[in-house]
Amino acid sequence: RWEMRVGVAGPFRIVQLIDRTGAYAAEQMRIDFVANASHELRTPLASILGFIETLSDEAGADPGVRGRFLKVMFDEARRMQRLVEDLISLSRIEAEKHRLPDERIDMAELVEVVRADIAATDAERARAVITAIESDVPAVCGDEARLSQMLHNLIGNALKYGRPGTPVTVSLRREGGMVRLSVADEGEGIAPEHIPRLTERFYRVDAGRSRMAGGTGLGLAIVKHIVERHRGRLDIASKLGVGTTVTVLLPPATDAVTKA
Ligand code: ADP
């Protein structure tokens, strides 16, 4: 995509060709994002409106029907709520892009906090989470709320896509001067051609399965932004039928970071 500008300078005509490929790609991504987000919101909204209409006529008089319909409406409204919360998170994280995180975070502690959070809402699921944490892992320089969100998204995915009854292993250790966190599941795995695209907004391998499990399609896009903001690295390794391991490398905090 080139833009041509023609000008005159004295006796010369100047033709300037400007490469706009990047700008067009960014614009296209923005258009796709708004279209996808609207579509994702429209579907549950249409369903809620449909059920309200049905409840307003005779069918609504039957308590059994009413109970069932209200349950569906509740689930659909929760789906919209999750999506709106993820959209807000994404835009906040993008807005914070240029502000470096400055809290001293003990990742081992944070992993335990997140595990307790998961246990508070679903004790059964939390039992699948096992941790392998080395004792000498240095603190990282980070934003606690965001790192917690990153852990929730990664552990949540491992629980969602892992086979029932299999463990999710969260490991933390020091590696080559970095803090290495990994979340491994024994699930269906992901075919290699999908892996590079998983951090795109709304990219899903199986949209139906993701929605059934309560996914928004934004979890890994949020994780990628958080990792980038912490100057870290994200790696997804997977084998079909075996499982998936997501690894995050974060730089350790320097002594200059004192804020607790
Ligand atoms: P979602 O809300 O759909 O889970 P994510 O952005 O978190 O969205 O993940 C994008 C897609 O990547 C998912 O829809 C799923 O297809 C795939 N995926 C993510 N984590 C895993 C995993 N641990 N095992 C298998 N597939 C996964």
TrEMBL record:
Any GO BP: cellular response to phosphate starvation
Residues covered by the Histidine kinase domain: 36-254
Keyword ATP-binding carried by entry: no
Entry keywords, A to Z: Kinase, Membrane, Phosphoprotein, Transferase, Two-component regulatory system
Record-listed E.C. numbers: 2.7.13.3
This protein's GO CC annotations: plasma membrane
Reaction(s) catalysed (UniProt annotation): ATP + protein L-histidine = ADP + protein N-phospho-L-histidine
Molecular function via GO: phosphoprotein phosphatase activity; phosphorelay sensor kinase activity
UniProt keyword annotation of Phosphoprotein present: yes
Record-given protein name: histidine kinase
Residues included from the entire protein: 144 to 403 of 403
